[in-house]
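Course exercise 7: structure representation. Students receive a sequence record and must write out the corresponding structure in token form. The form below is the worked example handed out in class, using Methyltransferase domain-containing protein (216 residues). Read each field label carefully; the graders check that inputs and outputs are placed in the correct fields and that the protein name is recorded exactly as given.

STUDENT ID: A-19
EXERCISE PROTEIN: Methyltransferase domain-containing protein
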Amino acid sequence: MEDSIDVILEDHTGVLSPHRPHPAVSACLGALFTAVYGVWSTFALPGLGTIPRKLKVPYLPSSRVQTLNIMKLLEGRTGRLVDLGSGDGRVVFAASSTGFQCTGFEINSILVAYARNKARWNGLPTSQAAFVNKDFWKTDLSHFNNVTAFLAPGVMAVLSEKLLKELPDDARVISCRFPILDWPVQSSVGSGLDQTFAYDIGIVRAHLRKAPEAEV
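STUDENT ANSWER:
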């Protein structure tokens, strides 16, 4: 998405017209593009000054199919669920409707405000659906036994280290679109962009312990 903004901001005046635009027109266009970029970056790249560059993930909401796939992979499970990068709260709302005690971590304060207002409008108590404006990378997730995430390929390795360090053995991790490499997939639903993967932490730990032994 950054590339598309860069293209918009490119100077095409030499192609479109041999004349330079009036300074007032240039100023207005510059202000407009700056405002558009500001709004876009607020939603697409939250936490610009607080999250390390390598851990930044643009906002991309889960599709309806992805959300349904998540719920299929949560069937038969109960307890506390955390959605990492909860956006507008759609996964939290879906999971809370089936009895999970849900917490959504979202660094974008605008999206958090939207999700909280929607929860209040629907009469959901915070014990059932809570939204936290906080960096989940700096939060201990050990008291959650269900984790959902729709992040980006570049952060999956770091995420796997964090989850292995903090989650209990009975925890299930569900990742949309992007698998966690080196982890054995317990089950998978969907295909293409909507494919969703489930991992059970106890099985993952056992697999990773055996891996070095197999190499010897």
